[in-house]
Amino acid sequence: MRDEILKYKDDPKQLEKLFRTNKTLFKKEFNAQYDELKGNTLADFWNERLNHENDEISWGSGKELLFVLVACLVAGIIAKLPALFNLQEEDFYRRNVGFIIFPVLSAYFAWKNNLSLGKSLFIAVAFLASSVFINFLPNENKSDTLILSCIHLLLFLWSVLGFAFVGGSRNDNEKRLGFLKFNGDLVVMTALILIAGGIMTGITIGLFSLIGFNIEKVYFEYVGIFGLASAPIVGTYLTQTNPQLVGRVSPVIAKIFSPLVLVMLVIYLVAMIYSQKDPYNDREFLLVFNALLLGVMAIIFFSIAEGSKTTKSQTETWILFFLSIVTIVVNGIALSAILFRITDGGITPNRAAVLGGNVLILINLLLVTGQLYRVLSKKAPIDGVGKVIASYLPVYIVWAVIVTFIFPLIFGFK
């Protein structure tokens, strides 16, 4: 978007169009290069418009608000399908939990970005085909491939949402990073909404109990489930119409947790040496170890996505560099444990999926660490780290497609 802003710096209509496409990214890119545009009347106007302090919350247009309300209703109805059609709840939610949120959010961004008919049809077909596939997989007891397919399907659906968010662009790394930032902001906003909703739930149930009405069952079956389904949708709407709400909170969270996670991880690795558990002989410990790895990876990527275009201090960059190195050590331990288990007990769907995922993560970490070292050596700008992350995202998507749709066939639905 940076190049587009410079290109259309004298065209008010095109600048307005860019702003409406992605308000958060536009403001970030505009502020990053405003020094070059000072003196331009239109640029000065946009500077005042974007950076004027406004405490009021924008609710967007009437059409947008109506779209969000309908989306919340649709998500709630999908979540209620087991009760409406007497379906087995555990099996339904295991296979279809991603279809409660991702399709309506993708429709929202497809509408916001004015995607072409062809791209919109691609999104619709992706959701429909994956829904048919996952729901027609054999319901074998203790089927590893079914569980793996359900887990990786979420990543695939998330990638379809990303496609709608970036407007179908294949090579726009800035928009991909914007998508990662959106996910971080959405987590913060959704958490706040759920906390507020939990408080309201407690107060409501308590008040009704005082006058002799026990509404817990009805409340949770209807208000509760619709509220849970709607929280990410409302969170998305608020982050897109009011980027200032969490625009300053998310970077602070990233800065606070990066050094804390680094310290925790080092202490954990030292403690593991003195403990009686190791990922080589304890399957449950290996699963927790890999979950830890994914969590730390998310912290690294979120921290970089939050400030890929801003100037980071040397201390922040060093923290991310050391955190990446320690995460590589964690990944190496997990990878060696997986190889040990494969050598000892043979290949299984779970081991193949975890092995492939860990190899991809290791390669990504090495690329990120190398780029961070170049930044610290003054050989590259910090935004190069973001480009490495953004350009590698499709690799994860390809792996998710393989595990979701091909593993059940390769391993005979076992």
TrEMBL record:
The keyword Transmembrane helix applies. Keywords: Membrane, Transmembrane, Transmembrane helix. Signal peptide: none annotated. The keyword Transmembrane applies. The chain crosses the membrane at residues 65-85, 92-111, 117-138, 145-166, 186-211, 218-240, 252-273, 285-305, 317-340, 352-373, 393-413. This is DUF4153 domain-containing protein. It comes from Segetibacter aerophilus.
